[in-house]
Amino acid sequence: MSLTFECLPDEIIMKFSGDVFDILRMYLSLNERFNHILLDQRLHLLTDFLHINLHHENVDHYYSTHAFRKVSKELISVVGLVTDQQLCQCVQPLIGFHLRERYNKFGEEFRSNAEHLQNVRQQYSHVELLIANSELKRIFTDLQSRSLGVRSFMEYHATNFTKSH
């Protein structure tokens, strides 16, 4: 029995073909099977392109968005060879959507961390706050001059901002 490339399982074809951009460039519009493989949500090719951690992100949310549907529709309708510029234009809305999602997520995390910081600071006495503020000022001043300051800040954070009274 001879084995042809067409007979290989979808996962093997995709996982051993290079990075996502190379895969899209190689297989896009090759035939209907490959177009469907490229957009199969179970293979997570588009989420891999965005470097989305499947364990930490709501992938179903991404797949249900207008941006994903639009890009999928455009990719599946490509006929003939696709240039790098065409491919970039095609996935650009997806990249923009992902950046907005990350921006919003980081904003939410920042607000949550700021609230947590305020809650922790409320547990400090006036004298402890003065000492903490002085130490933070010293550490941030160090950050301007050397990278060792980052380590100092992380150590300070671990010992002081996890304080529980």
- How many domains comprise the coordinates? 2
Number of helices: 9
Strand percentage lies at under 5%
What is the helix fraction of residues, given as a range?
55-70%
| N-C termini distance | 72 Å
Report the principal-axis shape. Answer: elongated
**Number of E-type strands:** 0
Model regions low in confidence, pLDDT < 50 over at least 5 residues:
none
Rg over C-alpha atoms, rounded to the nearest angstrom: 24 Å
How would you characterize the largest beta sheet?
none
Q: In sequence order, what are the helices and strands, one letter per element?
A: HHHHHHHHH
Q: Class by helix and strand content?
A: mainly alpha
Q: Averaging pLDDT over every residue, what do you get?
A: 79
Describe the secondary structure blueprint for this structure.
Elements: H1 10-15, H2 20-27, H3 32-39, H4 45-49, H5 59-63, H6 66-76, H7 84-122, H8 126-145, H9 148-160
Helix pairs in contact: 6-7, 8-9
